[in-house]
Fold these 3 entries.
Entry 1:
Amino acid sequence: MKEKIFEPFKVKDIVFLAIISAVTLCTCAVMPLVASLQTVIFGIAQVITSLQISIFFAIGLMKIPKPGTLFIMSLLTGLFQLLMAPPMFFSNIIIGLLLEILVILIFRGYKKDSAVFFAAVLYNPLSLPFNYLYNLLFGREAMTAVATKAPWITIGMTLAVVLLSALGAWIGIKIFKELKKSGAIKK
Amino acid sequence: MKAIELKNVTFSYEGYEAKVLDDACFSVEYGEVALLSGFSGQGKSTVLSLLAGIIPNITPGDIKGEVLIGGEDITERKMSDVCRKVGVVLQNAESQIIQQLVEDEIAFGCENFAFTCDKIKDCVDRACRQMQLNPQWKTRTLSGGQKQRLITAATLATEQKILVLDEPLANLDKPGAELLMNTLRQLALSGYAVLVVEHRLDMVFPYVDAVWSISNGKITAVKNKQEYLSAQAEHIQDTCCLHKVEKTVLRLDHIGFSVKGHEILQDISFEIKKGERVLLLGENGCGKTTLMRLIARLYQPSKGSIIQGIDAKLGQKVKGTSSWFKRVGMVYQNPNYQLFMPTVQQEVAFGAESAEYAEKIMQMFGIAHLAERHPQSLSEGQKRRVSIASVVATKPSVLLLDEPTVGQDYAGLREMVYILNQLHEQSGNTMITITHDMRCAEALCDRAIYIENGVVSAEGGKDLAHKYFYVTNVLKCK
Amino acid sequence: MSEKLLTKHPIYPLIGLLASILIIIFGLITAKNPECIWFLGGMWLLLLVFGYWRACLAVVPVSVVFCAVFAGITYAVSGDINAAYAAVNRILAVCVAVIPGLALPPIVLVRNFSALNLPRMLTLGMMITLTFFPLLGGEVRQVREAMKTRGAGSFFSPKIFYRAFLIPLIMRLVNISDTLALSVETRGFSKDAKNCSVYKTVSLRVVDILFLLLVIAGAVLAVVL
């Protein structure tokens, strides 16, 4: 029997995702403080937001394990980017879509914790290539100088983003499972 | 034809055998304001959910009997159909506002019902007049009381002839509560059916035509309102001996507090002695919780100073430190903010001087049987006990309690008061309490301070608390 | 996003966004050309005239600082004044392109999406995110305060810190979203609703088309002249 992958979203699902997206934005509000350093220290914005994004996205995916959840969260969290930097909003959407496709192909949905972990870990690190492109377009010479003279910064920051995302995804899944097991949260 | 009727309704939630409603019968007529009253956990919210269509559309359960709205059984109807017949105002206004302007928030429901733009404008204007709101106000800058009036206005705008309101007077001061109840009264006179679920019986009684009481799954009509009110207000005796030392632990000197130009506290001055039990009294929005947070050093006063005499080592800093919070225990109104450990036992033990003392506190508070439960899975009343126990386990010299008795039934309330007073006697701590519960207010205080218009309007002993709850407010019901 | 920068009569939101994208792309492509700075200056003046004066003035100090920093780094690295000029143009392109978004009340953007028949559930989600974003900041603050009262606010105990922060916060989020979902549905919102009206809609006006045409004309003039 073919397992049903796509389930319709209810009103309460969308409301929860909107609330989770709003709190993700709140906890990432520190990002503008380091925006000016992005072209000099590659990945700085991702490093300071990886933990929060992966925690809350993991919780969102655990609560509403339906294909489309990650895309909706990326759309809602990207709203402010749409107003401030439209190209970055589109990168949010592309990453959300890409991960949704990968999860459906590899895991057939978010029913398994590994699927949630996969999506939550990769979301923020996947924005690094877009960040690189953006920086290359706008801070060309400065970027090149940093990349050639201190490439270890780029590698180190990339690793830091991945590790922090993994930590956040693990924390989010662990907390959700604890609350669900206790009966405090119902899926 | 009755507006609302429950005919022999029996209900239990999915996965639970216990019947929340057991062959319950209840009705509300058109042209009537009815009150549904009962202690926490008796099933008032369940009745509301049945009438709003939330059960069974969102919350599943086993329903027997008929739930009739305008003569029609709604148990099989979708929520989108039910909400066109019944306007519902839920609790916690702040969590319900999704628009940034008052008029947009009120218009939201009208849009969903496909009213024309002209009609929406009329409905918005009328609802704003009824609730004394300005359509151009930003929702984010509204006070708690204004938010409550806004969500009520949003429901009034959609013109359902049957209204159900869950604790509509929460966060409303006296004038706000009177405005709302008068509006509901006028609507009933023009043919609406209004059902109110409310704890503030003193405020609601002068406006209601019928009173229903829910208890043990049954709903019964109350024939004698005064007798019923007296029974609800049966107050708990204070068994604590007066325990006072003359040393001043806290001195508030001309404290003022404002937020974004809005003055909450104007000029507050009083002293608290070591070993005193002080009750802060006042209407909703008068600044009691704000004052408590200032004392706790969670907020910094806009003017004036708070001098502490608890321990010289704690200094006179404006901001609380970890050492400060070891000596000053603050229990929040919402216990969910303070519970984070995986079991009740670990929650109470966190910060306690020893596991044995934590165990003793758990026994004292009657929560030892919950030791292995996750605190967030408990009922609201149980959570409150656990949060108080957790703070008390650190043996604070000063204990600040913000509404510690919400969610307790009468037996639980009596027990809670006894425990707090027993602890007070044993430790000689200083207690500062905020409570709206007239049954236990006097039992929790030696001294009462009444705050009005940002200043200390009156100070007194238990007599002040008695006068505030029993004389001033209860007299209005006659 | 500061409310002080919002404009009362914004350009049709999607046109504003389109203009932003055009300005960025044009700025990138022609960064090394002398006309670029004239184009960007012209766009800044156009936005000023069309009612975005608060946001226009707000970006000036930020642009000056960023341009100085990037021009300085670029010149120090490459020694080429043309490269420094191109860096300035790219930064200015971003700063000017941000103006329509900075000054747009977010709710107007959501109304625009509603008018374009984007699924109601999505526009509802957007409205909730935008409205609750400042409110949830207050919830985060409350949780942090409560942590302090329990003695769990220290970064040096990360295991306690994360529990004391996340568990109350998540429970509050779940409670808020449950209440909000109920409130929305009891007020008649339904994903299947076929009939609903729109109280305030966003329509395309002549002045919006004029604005877009002027942006395009500016780009063309910059290339031709």
Entry 2:
Amino acid sequence: MKGLLKKDHILLRDYFFLFVMLDITISVMNGGMLLLSRRDTCVRDVGRLAVTSYILVTFVQSLINQTFNDDEKSGFLANVFTQPVTRSEYVKEKYILALQLTGIFAGIHTAGIIIGLILRTEPLTSDAMLLLAEIYILSLAGALSLSFNSISMFMKFGAGKKGIGVRVIVLLPMVITYLIWALNVTRDNAEFHIALPAIVTLLSFALSLFLFPMSFKWAERREV
Amino acid sequence: MIFLEIIISSKTNQPIYEQITSQIKAKVMSGELKQGDPIPSMRSLAKSLHISVITVQRAYEDLQRDGFVETTVGRGSFISTGGTEFYQEERQRQAEEHLMQATEIARSSGISLEKLIELLTMFYEENE
Amino acid sequence: MEALEIKNVTKKYNNFTLDNVSFSVPQGSIMGLIGENGAGKSTLIKAVLDLVNKDSGEVDIYGKKHDRKAKEIREDVGVVFDSLHYHENLNPSQISQISALTYKNWDEKAFTNYLSAFKLNEKSKIKTMSKGMKMKLGIAIALSHKAKLLILDEPTAGLDPVARDELLDIFLDFMQDETHSILISSHITTDLEKVADYITFIHEGKVLLSKPKDELLYDYRIVRCGESDFVELKEEEGAVWRKHDYQYEVLLPTGKMLESKYTSCEMERPTIDEIMLMYIKGERS
């Protein structure tokens, strides 16, 4: 399985750096925004931060999808299963990769936020801090659930047309919710409702946990 | 390692294992290969001749059965002249048969014994 | 203990079934697998490697049952497919790094030696390689983790005669160890005629025959003859025949022994191709 991680690390290198650059940019922007936010508008500002940074949630899933597509296109699956690697290990590696990538992107983003907060001359309101924490947790849950669900869908349906269709269906609720949320929050003085995104994200996360053991079963039955 | 020539053809009707056995037997009979001379292992001979191992294995088994080769585990294969006596006897018997036929022909057509000996001597010396 | 034992393997698809296939590859031998396209050779190899789900049957490698969980066994198995299934942006050096983490016995030095013997640059991406080079890379990988059993699916297809000859020598070199074995599926029957010890012929998903190669090449005979001889010949054991416009063609498994019986007929040793054609297009009783 270490070999599989190494392979994915090598293959993702270029895309990964691209995403890291984006992440750093967004992180700096958000950090800057937090730094400069005024107490009376800080709740709204935190909301806007969420909108710009929620895009990060899709980074991990993109990269994971990339590895699956590459694996199938190159016929690598035919190869890997003739090696001393079990189906379980193949799936496990993808989950571990998802965790690694989430950790790195989250880490970079957190750094920006923390620096922004530390450098503030006066602290944020407690409402704003609460909102920030909620968004943070949702983002993590969102990133993990999207990538985990992707992994499960790939195991069941492969990388072909059917697979794409199913992945879009799984992704859709999150995307739609996010768009509604984004539109909502950019209107000036809009009430910031976290309820809907929270529900959708948590449902998505629950789904990913439910599908987790099934993804291993599907991997076992996968023919090449 | 003795320089050993074994020349095989995949195009003749004689199976390759037979080609190997007859060539080695001929070399032993002529003295080119002597008692105790080492011969290549089955696998390396197969590799050198670019043929399958089982073919060579069969040749070695036949040679061993006929007393021309001895294989010791761990030490390899060596020429044995144990089979040469039997082989020699076989060949002598074949020669005898031919000579008997020649004698019959000579007797029934009035060719003298001296003429026969003269012819035999001429043939024997001609082919050296 | 055989190197590879295939026992009653069956795999059903919609319009094709691999039906109750059984044969063995003894240790220290090379088994050639022949058959038309679509006869089931690749499916069989996939079933042996457990890439597809068998409907029934078992595959044992060096005495151990090979299934999904048995990953240890795959340390000893080297596989070469007809195309190199690695991402095209990888280069041999990276593959070596990955393989070192995948196989317990990855031999970096052996791999580098093969690369230079094959004149492959370890920093060239796979997508820059020709088909022949990719094949050689595949073989280099298969031979660099101390495998005992090689499974090769059309490894010499698309290679020029010189490259094929070099590869056959490499396989014979691999066979110097008497526990090593090779299962090789190939259309290039002349290669098999040279180096195979046994031949298994798969036709329409079933094993038609599995015999020592020398028996096929030296005991079998193929005869071209007229009606009168044909009538007798077709009664011989295992005879397979084809009727042509002006003659009959008969394949005789016991041909060598029958040479003295049919002195008026021209009996020839068949090639593996001729044997295949006879079984595929001919009739049997």
Entry 3:
Amino acid sequence: MSKLLAAWLLAASLAAAQDPRQIMQEVQRRQQSQSQHYEGTLEVIGHGSRIATKRWVFDRIGAFGNSKGMLRFTVPAEVKGVGLLIVNHPDRASDQWLWRPNIGREQRIALQDRSTRFFGTDFSFEDLEERDVAQFDYKLLGDEKETWKLQSTPRKSSQYTYGYLWVKKDNYTVVKVESYNKKGLVRAIDYRDFELAKGIWTARTIEVTDVSRNSRTTLKYDKLEYNVPMKDDDFTLDALRRGP
Amino acid sequence: MRLLRLISWPYARKHLLRWLLTTAGIVLGVGVFVGMHTANQSVSAAFRETIDKVAGTTQLQVTAGEPGFGEEVLEKVQSLPDVRAASPVIEATVSTGKGNLLILGVDMLGDRSLRTYDLDGTDEAIDDPLVFLAQADSLIVTKTFAEKNGLKINSRMPMRTMQGDRVFTVRGIMKPGGLASAFGGDLAIMDIYAAQMFFGRGRKFDRIDLALRDDVTLAQGTAKLRALLGPGYEVDPPSSRGEQFEQTARIYSLASNITSVFALFIGMFIIYNTFAIAVTQRRSEIGILRALGATRSQVRTLFLVESLIAGTFGSALGVLFGIGMAQAMAGYIGGILTDVYGVAQRADGLDLNPVLLGGALAMGIVTSLFAAVIPARAAASVDPVKALQKGRNQALGEGESRMRRWAALACAAASAVALIFSRNTVIFYAGFVLSGITAVLLAPSLTLWLSRALRPVLAGIRPVEGTLAADSLIQGPRRTSGTVAALMLSLALVIALGGLARSSYNSLSDWMRIALNPDLFVTTAQNLTARNFVFPASLGVGLRAIPGVAEVQLVRSVRVTVKGGPVMLVALDVASVERRAKLPPVEGDQADMYRRTERGEAVLASENFVRLHGGRLGEILEIPAPGGTLRLPIAGVVRDFSDQQGSLLISRDAYMRAWHDDTVNVFRLYLTRGAREAEVRQRILDAFGKQQRLFVLTNKDVRDYVTRLTDQWFGLTYVQIAVAVLVAILGIVNALTVSITDRRRELGVLQAVGGLRQQIRHTVWMEAAAIGFIGLALGLLLGAVELYYAIEISRRDLVGIDIGYSYPVATALALAPVILGAAFLAALGPAESAVRGSLVEALEYE
Amino acid sequence: MIHLRGVSKQFEGKSKVTALERLDLHIDRGEMVSIVGPSGSGKSTLLNLIGGLDRPTEGEIEIDGEILSALSDDGLTRVRRDKIGFIFQFFNLLPTLTSLENVSLPLHLRGWPRKKIDERARELLELVQLTARLEHLPDELSGGERQRVAIARALSIFPPILLADEPTGNLDTHTGAEILKLMHDLHERLGATVLIVTHDHSVAESCPRTISLRDGRIVADQHRQALNQEVSRA
């Protein structure tokens, strides 16, 4: 049913690309992959930040919005082995568990805590989720030269009340996101250094700016691969406990 | 006013020392009152403050008694839409060798929506939150604590945990203020899951702190959470913990109230005494005043105003003294209460309550005024003609004495009647007061009789000095009987408290002999009451395997709320306890009560639980537990001293089912015949000491500990004893000073006809000794009565255990030299002043 | 027996009062001397100094070979208890003690054995003719009786010196005369040195020697040998 719908939507989008939901669905379709693997480098560039640069290995399986991701820290030595399992759900917020090898137990990250910052970076836990377009309402705000500017409003629980997205017209990639809450702009995310990998345009650098703290964090993707063979079994709580 | 300056001031200046001594009683009375209550209130305030500061913006707390509850409860609470944020907490106090450190285990991810960590340096709590979480040894300390102990970021700090000795790393420093100032700044934050591990808590939380959504009221939130969680969980605002704590502190308020009333009562006597003497001494002066046209009411007002001034001065001084005393006592009371309620607090500053201080001031002044009423009336009724005639007038009117004796008889009869109807609390306390009044009314007559009886005895020791000393007492009953009454009251208090202590010791040591008979105790701390750490049940298996161990009893004690009060629930293997340490029932059938308790169908209640919380045999108690409310009848009542608030004994199985908790506080070990205590102890330490935080206490260690704990409890009463004795000394000094003044001429004659100075001193000393002796005799006698009341009060309202009457003979014997020595000490000054003065003046003295 | 050499006594107060000024006086053993003078002339002060109740500001007092100024307070007391008996105007009996006990007092203070004390006290009370009043308290005695008890007390140790300050001052004329007679009698029988401070001329004149004081100085020192003999015989 949904596949049929997607096909129909695809056809429709070509005809009338002005519809915001169709734009976003096209964005999501073009990002579609069965699995993903990369090595990330996370750097906080705040003033006087003492947060060490971290590296991790990330694997993801499943379709966008319904995927599972496993993140393992590798550097620095103090955090090596710490893992994060993210199970996304198409209809609600994700489940997230943190694995702490030092005390030998996992810790569920509560929904209420998703707005907290991801280990001192400028990301929040929520920013790590994949949320299906169906979880948002969209409005087209402007048709700029190379990009569309859209407004997204989450239907389900979120720390944000709305956001602006800029989508490139030529390849349907999101290049910038601004997220707002009642008080105003919270975070801005810039997507840069796009590269075509296995037919998917992927930003190799993501930079998030926390407006209130005036601090930036960059995440760089290395060894990016799509559709490599992976097993569902490696994305369970047991797998999280097992370690890499 | 002019009269005051013209008449009173010169007199007061001349007798400055005596005025100061007089006010000393008020100073002490007001001081004790202010001191004890301020200390109590400061501790309470510190407790509330710690709760407040630790609570942050927490609106409600979910608890389930001391054992805590499983982690799944957190998800349940967080799932409630009305809850904005919920964060689990574990609290523990750890002794670091640099004082106690309050450790707060929180979920570092979510907790900051409830608590603000004002952090040093950058706006971040910690340099790297991921490192903090990834490394279990991470700790955030306050700046105060860091500076005190020379700690910096990444400094190492050793602590003894359930995993043995571990070195922790400081990974964050909080700025002073707010949370960081709770518990006097001796506070550290640890990740809650690390804390679970280090404190052996398993996958449990002590409580959940939560905040509601803005559109949800406290009442709505509380109701929803209660409905969600069911019985066994408590949902209360943080402040309610303070209220429970204050309820516990009530005992100390009651005890301190009794002491202050006693001190003030004694102070009142000293004032009455001084004024009565002053009126006698100033008779001729009063006579002249009256002859010159002063009205009776002017004379009366003069004396009342004098006492008002003395009372105000003494009360003000008493308030200052009390504040100083509170400073010293706050820590002491705090320590005891922390143990009872398990929440750490530190009273660093004093909480001065203006109402309390004002009240104390008023109390002192009123007491002082009240004490002066009778002497002032006596002064007003002085007949000017008779007063101007020469000669002494000291003797008590026979009519006055007779009236007093009748009144005493009436009071004695009334207090005897009160005893019959003593079930009623008001009547009982009235009887208590009446018995004291009887003694006070009888004091003058008894003093006179005893002085007469003593005369030949003293004369036998030293013919002149002894006779004169006795005569001085007989001639000046007014100046003596006040002091004797004060001394009598304070000694009665000492005897009552001493007897209470002794009786408690007796029944305590009985209990220890029966109940505390295991050979070894394996505990998580040096003492038996610390419940911050717990053992896994599996350790019991390991202990049983140690050669020389015959039997291991697993004991889990937790504080739960039953009948609205914090009660100690002791879970243990009832069958094994019945076999090894069978407590005889106070009520109930012995075989039946153990059997039913063992099957988990009933509980055994301690005697003090029954008394303090109004329980009775067969009553079905509702004990809230996470697994649902337990409804168990009281199968038997036993004498158990485990806890001041009362204890309930439950079978370990029933406990584990209801609380989902199989941890252990204490293992009680019985050794096989012939096994050597020290060797087994060493074997245990060798086998588990490295990877476990554990202490192995011998039976003697535990008994010593319990005894020490009781000593501590009575430490407070020793303070009261000291106060009482001090007041007595002041009374004697006062009486002697007056006696010396009265007898200056007599003592002068004695010297003129050849009395050596040493002989003069002897007569003063003997007078002091005689006062001391009479006070002692009456005090020991009255003490026997007061002890009865003390034991009753303790049974009814304080401890709830019937400890049996046992007169403290040793204390009484020890008091004799103390009081006679004190009397001698008190006599030194007056004796010297007696031999120093000019002979010529003394002989002309009138 | 009694030597005063350049004795002065001043009282410190708001202003300095000189009670005695450079007094020289010599009294032989066995003399009976009266000291007269108006109020404030220093006669009581003189008596107090001789009795060792007070110390002079200047000068030297010698009693039976002992220089008082060289003695400690207890030394002074010893001189008093061994050598001096006091008789006061207001008797200064201890109100709680019986006649017998009052008389025994100085003997007890010397630590005599009880039996000997009792004997001596009774003997003395007999001497002052109070055998019937042994067990009475001072309040139960008349003025004259009280003074006789006081005299008995002063004599209890057979002191070589007897000092009396207005012994008849608080008594009516008749009783006064009786007491005076008693004193003469005792002087004669016991041979003690007697000093009497008095206002009463008849008392003064009954003594063989009278010293008159005015403003702290001796203005007259009168010997009256013959008269003394007559009175004593009377």
